[in-house]
């Protein structure tokens, strides 16, 4: 968080010397769970939190305050869900990189990591009894260079997967920083990697892990044995991830291979929800699962523009707002032709800062999504994430009515902190010569075109 008192925060800055004293922490359950009170004077600092999480956030603020001066801050987040999706399926990120990414989230007081573990282009989680998911499903022969419209390939194999111990280490590292890891197994579409490993899960497809970006037409069959497989995978996921919510995806599932239509997916989602309920968990699914009725208690990740957030609210579901045109950080940061692989609609720092979800108690919060087709390394993820994720952190923490000019004035001091941590953020002045990917051309879209497309895509929600 950028260390300027928020509008709701009382504070005093009186000048003086840097604190030489100790930092004392304490828990006062009278405060909200994630709230904190921070007092700093020349003799030291005291951080009181509503829980260990509140203390943690107070300490983040303390670490980010300019030196010197007495300070009194009372602070609490606006939203309980301050999330980021990291797609480790399109590009695998080794464990140390995931841990560093979690550190950066926690530094910005973000508290949910939605980990997209499986997709057509790679399966990243070891599952006992299903070895081919990782010996076969975790590897693809090559990757596309740039937007799929150009049909260019790099000719270089890519892959990797997490063992159960890896994932437990990620969960523990995140928990220490008050970040919940919400895992996602994307089903029943986006499953080509699993079907490549076990063709009996599919509908006759016998081929490799998908090398092209975009959506595979090859989806799960919905035979009893395949549902048993899905339940087994979810059981393993529940064993590793303590999260109350378990992502089952549900987005972009073509039905051409099925003997029926969307109603088959509705029944599939209901079966998975029932299974998870037996484990004391709830479904987290993309807004496609609203079509035909989502299971009771399902939390919706509303991504296809802004309308599905409203649809989820009307249907009485809790919802996490992640509209692509407002919060997809794989979308291009400027019109500069030097941006790496520019895709999606224009989404500037100011656009992200300006985002406001609908006011409803059903809105748990928001989520910024990092799909990694065009992010081949953590370095590239950092370029796309920052500084937009700094703006997002204020969207989900601070009250409405924020002022971009005020944020922009505070940002350089924060970027100096990111410099100190070696974060490869996008310079405010634009991409450096070496940031571009002329070898991986993009496909920039206009907002008008995308909104028209989204209107069509969400017709079944109206
Ligand atoms: C998504 O972007 N397919 C959820």
Spatial extent as radius of gyration: 22 Å
Poorly predicted ranges: 1-19
Oligomerization state of this entry?
single chain
Measured distance between first and last alpha carbons:
38 Å
What is the number of independent domains? 2
Give the rounded overall mean pLDDT. 95
Q: What profile does the largest beta sheet have?
A: 8 strands, parallel, barrel
Instruction: Give the distinct bound molecules.
Output: acetamide
Helix content: 25-40%
Tell me the strand order in the biggest sheet: 5-6-11-12-13-14-15-17
Within CATH, the superfamily of the largest domain carries the name: Glycosidases
Q: Please report the total strand number as a whole number.
A: 18
Structural class: alpha/beta
Shape: globular
Task: Examine the coordinates and then state which fold CATH places here, giving the name of the CATH topology of the largest domain.
Answer: TIM Barrel
- Strand % is 15-25%
User: Which CATH architecture of the largest domain is right?
Assistant: Alpha-Beta Barrel
The CATH class designation of the largest domain is Alpha Beta
Helices, by number, come to 14
